[in-house]
Design brief:
This protein is of the alpha/beta class. It contains 19 helices and 14 strands. Helix 19 (463-474) links the parallel strand 13 and strand 14 (478-483). It comes from Glomus cerebriforme.
């Protein structure tokens, strides 16, 4: 029975694995709870929302694993250790560790001397590589140590599941890892330099089970001598049969050969996740028609005309759960010509092909036909949890009164047809609700699950609106009502 209780506790604490505050509270309850929580906390001790620079205990615990000779040598160099590093630990904490984060390890070492800091970092990596018998996660951004040469590195690193790195790291590190790590399933690349890193492609080529690939540009200059993406894309091309999650954020668009990406994207036919966070307006309709992903569940695309994602939706297998679009569209012309027609067809495509949709971005015109199709969508998509809505008025003669009328019509549609799963609505652009219309909507919503509402319109900061919103918050009708920036309105 005691083992059963411990197993049940472990399953419960696993659900809290990302909530360090709750886990720290749980380990103080009793010995059994403490013994159950510690392995979960120490599986990835770097992932919590903690100011690691001020947490001397994390440094002290790792330092306690240093040999006496190493400590004495460092003491002679003027490095003092907390007293805990000389005490026996209650647990073999590092035996539970399955991850290494280079940046945080560097931050917790309170030493100013570059030479001594470098030496102690090396000792810490030696300890972690030796103690972490089954490494799963490695964040090697800013690394300055060739950890693959450490004794036992091969046995430790060959189990690596996820790697996060940046392109400023010397290519030799990637060549070294490619010899050892051939079963990485998730690879996250932060491109933070204009110099092409040829080691990235070699690392990709070595992987036999790469399922998840992310690339994000973070450089502040675009003066590239070589194409920064070509080698990587060609290496990914050979992984088309196994890749199921793909996220790409390319900044260097003007000097980039778009044809290679246009050629490669259709080959990833097994994708469940496709996130393209940059300008893909250079794709034409025929190229989007070739993007056929029968298993796709998550689709995020920015800088795109509204008719383009319709082709992916139409060719999907009915499994889509998230469709997030237009995050970086700043002007109405970004939505393309014939907006009324294509936005209407977009709503119809969602009704026809997305019965499992949970998170959805919709942009449409305030016409009777659009509202009719919108109500149909709400009735069909019963799993819908969150909506990001844009009403786009192209008529320059539209008045605030017209906006209020459109808002009232939208609220009526939501009351009549919204699925019971709907928990969140985000209103972007030309949405305005009169005080009376909003009050009636919230009254009608009473009895349903509490609603979270986000909007960018400053009108709701007015005292009358604030009083109304607070009343329904107190009544439990809405859990949140916030006026946010245009950037924050997106997921």
């Amino acid at each position: 029975m005691s083992q059963l209780n411990k197993d049940v506790l472990f399953l419960l604490f696993e659900e809290l694995r990302d909530d360090s505050k709750s886990l720290f509270s749980c380990l103080l309850v009793n010995k059994l709870w403490c013994e159950t929580v510690i392995p979960i906390l120490w599986r990835n001790p770097w992932c919590y929302d903690i100011d690691y620079e001020s947490k001397s205990y994390l440094f002290a615990i790792i330092a306690s694993y240093l040999s006496v000779e190493t400590k004495e040598f460092l003491l002679r160099q003027g490095i003092n250790f907390p007293s805990i590093s000389y005490q026996s630990l209650l647990f073999d904490y590092l035996s539970f560790c399955r991850s290494i984060n280079v940046t945080i390890i560097n931050n917790i070492i309170p030493i100013e001397s570059p030479h001594n800091q470098f030496y102690l970092q090396q000792e810490f990596y030696n300890i972690l590589i030796t103690s972490c018998t089954e490494l799963k996660y490695l964040d090697m951004r800013s690394i300055n140590h060739q950890i693959f040469y450490i004794p036992k590195a091969k046995a430790c690193l060959e189990t690596l599941y996820e790697l996060k790195c940046d392109t400023s790291v010397d290519p030799i590190y990637f060549y070294g890892l490619a010899r050892i790590c051939q079963n990485i399933q998730k690879l996250v690349i932060i491109n933070d330099t204009i110099k092409v890193n040829h080691g990235i492609a070699k690392l990709i080529e070595a992987q036999e089970n790469l399922k998840n690939f992310e690339w994000e540009d973070e450089f502040y200059d675009d003066d590239f001598i070589e194409d920064p993406y070509e080698e990587t894309l060609l290496a990914l091309k050979d992984k088309a049969d196994i890749l199921i999650h793909l996220k790409i954020f390319f900044k260097y668009i003007e000097g980039f050969d778009h044809t290679l990406l246009q050629e490669i994207l259709p080959k990833f036919y097994k994708l469940k996740t496709l996130i393209l966070k940059n300008d893909f307006t250079y794709f034409n309709e025929n190229q989007f028609k070739m993007l056929v992903y029968h298993d796709i569940e998550i689709l995020h695309i920015d800088y795109i005309t509204i008719n383009m994602p319709s082709y992916i939706i139409e060719n999907s297998g009915g499994h889509l759960k998230e469709i997030i679009l237009f995050e970086n569209c700043e002007y109405y012309e970004d939505f393309g010509d014939n907006f009324n027609e294509v936005s209407l067809k977009f709503i119809q495509k969602i009704c026809e092909h997305c019965p499992s949709i949970e998170y959805l971005t919709l942009a449409f015109a305030p016409t009777d036909e659009h509202f009719t199709e919108f109500k149909k969508l709400l009735k069909v998509c019963q799993k819908l949890k969150s909506l990001l809505l844009m009403i786009l008025n192209f008529d320059e003669n539209e008045t605030t009164e017209n906006f209020m009328e459109n808002g009232a019509e939208l609220l009526k549609a939501l009351i009549r047809s919204a699925p019971t799963n709907l928990r969140e609505i985000r209103f972007f652009d030309d949405f305005k609700f009169s005080l009376d219309a909003l009050e009636e909507f919230l009254k009608q919503w009473e009895g349903r699950p509490a609603l979270s509402i986000l909007t960018i319109d400053q009108i709701y900061r007015g005292e009358d609106y604030k009083r109304l919103i607070n009343k329904f918050k107190n009544d439990g009708v809405i859990i949140d009502f916030r006026v946010v920036s245009g950037f924050e309105i997106y997921y």
